[in-house]
Specification:
Helices cover about 30% and strands about 30% of the residues. The chain is α+β, with helices and mostly antiparallel strands and about 170 residues long. The protein has a 7-stranded mixed β-sheet, with helices on both faces.
Length: about 170
């Protein structure tokens, strides 16, 4: 198993996996088609595309998109149907949160649907909490917005525990 960052040769697999899971539960929307035309715009706009390979095949993918200086949007997380239930989603999620932190994010948001109970449970286990419920203005399939605060990075290189930032001596 290996995680790749921003590998342009995996862009078609990123789109393939996403269109497969969206079509399995919902319908493709204009935002999906626009992203399929130019997935690498995520990277050009300050985000990152993560792909997970196993034995050379791309079996999972997700992206973190830049919303503002402090916030990234976790999006397009998908695992091939034949690979679900093996913990790949948990690995992708943890890696995506670290990638967002590495890119300077202090929080990560995501859009989902409450019908996806396993996904919602995974997000909650990772520290996400619902901040909005109901119809979303951009995606018909979304009925929940979740957010996770990322722990601050310790100046010595580690990650500080969640909660108020400690006072640092000058």
């Amino acid at each position: 198993m290996r995680i790749h960052y921003d590998n342009e040769s995996h862009a078609a697999d990123f789109i393939r996996l996403n269109e497969a899971w969206i079509s399995e539960y919902f319908q493709l929307e204009e935002g999906d088609r626009a992203l399929a035309r130019d997935p690498m715009r995520i990277v050009r706009e300050g985000g990152s595309i993560l792909t997970l390979t196993n034995r050379g095949a791309v079996i999972g993918a997700c992206a973190v998109l830049r919303e503002d200086a402090d916030t990234m949007l976790l999006a397009r997380m998908a695992v091939a149907a034949s690979e679900r239930g093996k913990g790949w989603g948990r690995i992708l999620l943890a890696t995506a949160l670290q990638r967002a932190r590495d890119l300077g994010a202090r929080r990560v948001r995501l859009l989902s649907n409450t019908r996806l109970a396993a996904a919602i449970h995974l997000y909650e286990a990772a520290g996400f909490r619902a901040v909005q419920r109901g119809p979303h203005p951009d995606y018909t399939r979304c009925d929940i917005v979740m957010e996770c605060e990322l722990p601050p990075v310790d100046p010595s290189g580690g990650v500080l525990p969640a909660g108020p930032a400690p006072e640092l001596e000058a």
